[in-house]
Design a protein that fits this description.
The complex is a heterodimer of chains A (332) and B (241). By secondary structure, chain A is an alpha+beta fold. Chain A has helices at 12-21, 34-39, 74-79, 81-86, 88-95, 100-105, 108-112, 119-122, 164-170, 274-280, 287-297, 309-326, and strands at 5-8, 25-28, 47-50, 59-62, 65-69, 174-179, 182-187, 210-216, 227-232, 243-252, 255-264, 271-272. Among the domains of chain A are: 5-53, Uridine Diphospho-n-acetylenolpyruvylglucosamine Reductase, domain 2, CATH 3.30.43.10; 222-326, Enolase-like, domain 1 (2-Layer Sandwich), CATH 3.30.390.50. In chain B, helix 5 (150-157) packs across helix 8 (220-233). With 241 residues, chain B is of the alpha+beta class. The chains are: A alpha+beta (332), B alpha+beta (241).
Chain lengths: 332, 241
């Protein structure tokens, strides 16, 4: 690991100022991703600003919804009674990811800031436009089994690895940040970005902006009774998603009044599929409707040599996840 | 925690840069503890920051040490650390608490699991400086003298290991996991996460909740049996140690 200077920030403003002063600096919270990347020299900050002492750990009611502190640990968030009761999709998504040890250290803000798990990003001997802009993409014509089928560019076909973020985009969460220009709120769907010609940039955060909290809106608690996070992966636990599906439904007399569907493991950002939501809305969740919704969701998907299976897998996962969310199927 | 300054051993006062620790680690395989200790003292004599130019691998950027206080297995430590030092390397290389094992060093195997302020974490992904002021329990802190922790006894009885390399991590993880269950936490395999109350600890729950600890010998059946038995025998008693 390259040497770095270490500073403990005492409040948000001093943390932001410390980052502003030094272009090579980074915030550190749980460190479960950043420290790993620093060990491999993939990330080489010269200055770490430790934000763990900031008072951003609360989980509380806010405007009828729930506000998740950026520094609340993933495990505490998943198990908070407000979250379990009103936003069980968030609980399910968090608990589908990583291990208990990692969730105990990882924070909510850090979960949003995870880098991709693309093998080529991790391998310094390989080209990667995300790690080293202009060096090329090893995955595009390489072993791309875990890679994107939506929104990729000829520069990068990496996926975003988070489970939590898939639930958050489905529930129309909002990310609150504090930066040099004060505070602002970013709708979750606009937080992460597609690779385009600048795959080295994962999010729309500006320099020195600090995530302070994530809001789950009151309207999304309408889905509490019918939501489900299905994660398909190479082993039963502790693996990243090949495809995951977050489903949130509001049912009325057996008809879908509202639907939210988002996919993980398929794009550079958590992938909301409004086309599928439109197919479900106003209909009964019969098999034909579910299959139509799944087909609509996968319109425009583009498979590469080793990941074409994700298109059919994604369709079946959507059918399965919606079925479970309606209460008809058993959780898997 | 007790804020009294502690009596340091010389090695604690001047922790070596990481590359010197690696050097020390290699030497340790060839030399006994005393000669290793002396050789490290010679290397650092009059050179507390380890910036001797003769040691070509020492980084160019001066590293500012950070004061860190930790309470580990009931003992207080006052340290000055290179901020790069992981809690795992601190325990093993500087404090001689070698019960905690380095497996993958990337948070993927769980061999390095320790309990920080009551929570199990991967010590390989924890910078020691970040945990200033924390209370840490390692596998060395589970037993009370010769009285083994009920989970240790159960692991022996059910042969929850073969080579034993993952065992200290499995034990620390299981101790904290049973505490999590007592607190009413849910897991990925819990049927209804909206339902409050204690989740019955089925074998599926044990397997899912312990999935962050890999055993390449495949002693999983013994591990699950040991945890199942200990969870029953420990019910009602404080198991967070």
């Amino acid at each position: 690991m390259k040497p770095f200077a270490y500073t403990r920030a005492t409040n948000s403003q001093s943390a932001v100022d410390a980052i502003l002063r030094d272009q090579t600096s980074k915030f550190i919270a749980g460190g479960t991703n950043l420290i790993d990347l620093m060990k491999e020299d993939i990330e080489q900050p010269r200055h770490l600003v430790d934000i763990n002492r900031l008072e951003l750990t609360r989980i509380e009611q806010f405007q009828g919804g729930v506000r998740l502190g950026a520094l609340a640990h993933n495990s505490d968030t998943a198990n908070h009674q407000l979250v379990r009761e009103h936003y069980p999709l968030v609980t399910q998504a968090i608990l589908a990811g990583a291990s208990a040890q990692l969730r105990n250290a990882a924070t909510n803000g850090g979960n949003l800031m995870q880098r991709t798990r693309c093998y080529y990003f991790y391998d310094l001997a390989m080209p990667c436009n995300k790690r080293e802009p202009g060096s090329g993409c090893g995955a595009l014509e390489g072993f791309n089994r875990i890679h994107a089928i939506f929104g990729a560019s000829d520069q990068c076909i990496a996926t975003h690895p988070s489970d939590l973020c898939v639930a958050l985009v489905a529930l129309d969460a909002v990310v609150n940040v504090e930066g040099p220009d004060g505070q602002r709120s970013i709708p979750f769907r606009d937080f992460h970005r597609l690779p385009g010609t600048t795959p080295e940039i994962d999010t729309n955060l500006k320099r020195a902006e600090l995530i302070t909290s994530i809001d789950l809106p009151a309207t999304s608690s309408a889905f509490a009774r019918h939501s489900y996070y299905l994660k398909v992966r190479d082993r039963a636990s502790y693996a990243f998603a090949l495809v995951s599906v977050a489903v949130a439904l509001e049912l009325q007399d057996g008809t879908i009044k509202q639907a939210r569907i988002a996919l993980g493991g398929v794009a550079h950002k958590p992938w909301r599929v409004k086309e599928a939501e439109a197919v479900l809305t106003g209909n009964r969740p019969d098999e034909r409707t579910l299959r139509r919704a799944a087909e609509a969701a996968m319109q425009g998907a583009r498979g590469y040599q080793h990941n074409r299976f994700k298109i059919e897998l994604g369709k079946r996962a959507i059918v399965r996840a919606v079925t479970v969310a309606t209460g008809e199927g058993r959780a898997v | 925690m007790d804020e009294r300054p502690q009596a340091f051993s010389p090695r604690m006062e001047t922790p070596l840069p990481i590359d010197l620790q690696r050097r020390g680690f290699l030497q340790r395989s060839a030399l006994d503890g005393t000669s290793l200790f002396l050789s490290q003292r010679l290397l650092t004599a009059g050179n507390p920051e380890g910036s001797n130019v003769a040691l070509a691998t020492v980084p160019q950027v001066a590293i500012e040490k950070v004061a860190v206080r930790l309470r580990i297995n009931g003992s207080n430590y006052g340290l000055r650390l290179d901020p790069r030092v992981s809690l795992l390397d601190l325990l093993r290389e500087q404090l001689n608490l070698t019960g905690t094992k380095k497996g993958c060093n990337h948070g993927q195997c769980g061999a390095c699991t320790v309990i920080i302020d009551g929570r199990r974490v991967n010590s390989c992904l924890a910078l020691a400086v970040i945990h200033d002021g924390s209370e840490i329990t390692t596998v060395e802190g589970l037993a009370s003298g010769d009285q083994l922790h009920p989970l240790q006894t159960a692991f022996i009885k059910h042969e929850g290991f073969q080579c034993g390399y993952c065992t200290s991590g499995q034990l620390c993880s299981a101790v904290a996991m049973l505490h999590e269950v007592e607190q009413g936490t849910v897991s990925h395999v819990t049927e209804d996460v909206r339902k409050p109350g204690r989740v019955p600890l089925t074998d599926d729950e044990i397997r899912e909740r312990m999935s962050g600890n890999i055993c390449r010998c495949g002693a999983y059946p013994g591990i699950v049996s040991a945890i199942r038995e200990a969870s029953v025998s420990m019910k009602g008693v404080s198991n967070s140690r």
